[in-house]
Amino acid sequence: MKKVLAWTVLLVLVLVIVIPILVIGGFHGEPRQGGSAKMAKGDHIIIKVYFHEQQKIVEMKLEDYLKGVVAAEMPAEFELEALKAQAVAARTYAVKNMTAFGGSGLAEQPGADVSTDYKQSQAWANEETLKKRWGSNYTKFWNKISKAVEETSGEVATYNGEFIQAVYHSTSGERTASAKEVWGFDYPYLQSIPCTWDQKSPRYYDKKEFSFAQVEQLLGPETQVVAAMQNNSSGAMAILNTTESGRVGQIRIGSKVLSGAEVREKLDLRSNNFNVELKDNKIVVNTIGYGHGVGLCQYGANGMAKEGMDYRQIITKYYTGVALKNINAY
Fold this sequence. Notes:
Number of domains: 2
Protein name: Stage II sporulation protein D
Organism: Pelosinus fermentans B4
GO biological process, one term: sporulation resulting in formation of a cellular spore
Radius of gyration: 26 Å
Shape: elongated
Transmembrane segments: 6-29
GO cellular component, one term: outer membrane-bounded periplasmic space
Low-confidence stretches: 1-41
């Protein structure tokens, strides 16, 4: 009878104490590889990153990934509030693409959410790269970047409850551009707005000179630039119209009409906010701004921060009508 009683007590202890400890312990620590981000919270949200140079997919904590993005995309010398705005934009951009949050992932690499190739997603820098770039300032700058990410942890920009397309660029040059004028599709939060805070950007103004032959080679022989210029044809080079933000819509060069975006790409200009002039038998292209001009202007964000505005004011300025929410609410 005593043996039966002893076994009964032992069984009760196992059921009441040991098993609950094992069950609870199973939900602590790092989320499993490939687990849904919706099942994790805060620092434990996992993003699948395609490292294009190594050609492999690596699973990382979202917030750790973002530190590498902010460090690569924005100068660490910028004001903390500007870096925070960049962190929110970068987080929103990433989450918008994450399959765990309903995104489509990286089209070029199935199984990945984002890429470290800035042409496909956002730029990203590792510790080795940053140590070379920052030198003796590495610890100071890394702590600053980390603070910007950590103090905005989980914050994303939304419109009507949906994650926005949080695109950004270096320098707008007087006005940002709308998504519609650049890419042809409209988003209510990606509209053209005045931007005067980026005028101290080192990328604000640029000038390039081309020979007639160079322009014809770059834009195509059908432009007949050389012949048109040698004949002093009237209107051989003229901007025909501009967009809402003042960027070149269409331009006639030689015998062909091209879009401002085409000319920017083929002549490798900093933006399609440019004018052209003839000088000493050369075509001179003067450019204002750097990048597509849509969404957050990075140098503008820094200018706003210098004037005392915080990251929330910066985000809501460049993304019209958005609200900041925390991804843990999704």
